[in-house]
Amino acid sequence: MLKEILFDQVKPAYGCTEPIAVALAVATAKKYLKGELESINITLDKNTYKNGLEVNIPGTSFIGLEIAASLSYVCGNSEYGLEVLKDVNQECIDNSHKYLGKIKLNVNKEYMGLKVDCTIIGDNSVNVVIEDKHDNVAHIEVDGEQIYDRHFEAGGALLDEIKKYNIDDLIDYLDKYDMDVDELLEKTMNLNTKIAEKGLKTDGNFGHVLDFEPVNIVQAAVDARMSGELMPVMTVAGSGNQGLSSTLPIIKIGRKYDNEKVKKAMLLSILVTIYIKSYTGLLTPICGAGTIASAGVSAGITYLKGGNNDQIKHAINNVLSTLFGLTCDGAKKGCALKAGTGTFVALQSSELALNDINVPCGNGIAAKDVEETIKRVGKLTESIKKFDEDVLDYIGKC
Known about the structure:
Layout: H1 2-9, E1 10-14, H2 17-30, E2 39-44, H3 46-52, H4 65-75, H5 90-96, E3 103-107, E4 115-121, E5 125-131, E6 137-142, E7 145-149, H6 167-173, H7 179-200, H8 213-226, E8 232-236, H9 240-245, H10 248-253, H11 259-280, H12 288-304, H13 309-323, H14 335-354, H15 370-383, H16 386-390
Parallel strand pairs: 2-3
Antiparallel strand pairs: 1-8, 2-4, 4-5, 5-6, 6-7
Helix pairs in contact: 2-4, 4-5, 7-8, 8-14, 11-12, 11-15, 12-13, 12-14, 13-14, 13-15
């Protein structure tokens, strides 16, 4: 089951996954459209909308969900999944501008979880709904006739299956994974390292801030991705920034270690990140790259350095007890600094754990068992969801 969860939750993507979900909905719908396009009407949940407002669309210097939709109408390919916009070029960008006026966006604050409801109209009408995951096409309707319907049912997602395990189970799996998973880890290392290297070669990139490589590499990669670099990254639990943050520090520190041990450490980090996200949900008011992936990477680094199971759990607990409350105010260039902050805390938390130092039970949200701390993070994430609505009043407004 863990292998199934991994392949469900670890996938390559071009660009921020929220605009990409919009692009995928449009690309899917246009396959059924007849005649000239009259309009594209898209209704989003507040989190998807929030994360699409100020992030660059891959291969362009433009921001916004409208450009993602118009680009996808021109050159998006739904067969690529989360890589739907990988064929973007200058001709595509030029042609997309004439469709921008035909796109209307709405936010439905009653939508629970990720949802993109897209209707495009020409000589006929096509409705496509993406729900639960960024690449999960749940419903297709043409002129009122349902041709596909597999709506998400609460508690039925594969992501929730990881709750049947505990942290010890995840650690045990590190000695059991097969060649398919090994190839996924190799691809993850390759994709995520390449975009980090690109970021480090770019003037003005946030990866140049400090002389500290484990943080620099994360900030460089996240900045490059948020700035629209047309390169794929391996996402974890629906987020490319989580994918970068949960793997790159281990890859950098791992230069001193055996490659197999590095891959196992990276796998543990990914699994812990997915595990925590199963309690918080994919889209949350707290920063996934700065908080959740940092908890994952602290576990991976502790494992890499020879930590035992208890020390690995202490490392996770230390991060969550410290960084919960680091909010997500939309996808943007500044996410690089949040991811870098999380990396700092992950490294500190790992070193403390390796010395058997743990944030004590009762200190804030810290529980006796790390699984209980994670459940508390999930519950508290629900309690601050009004932030997602209020922050929309400020994003993009100087």
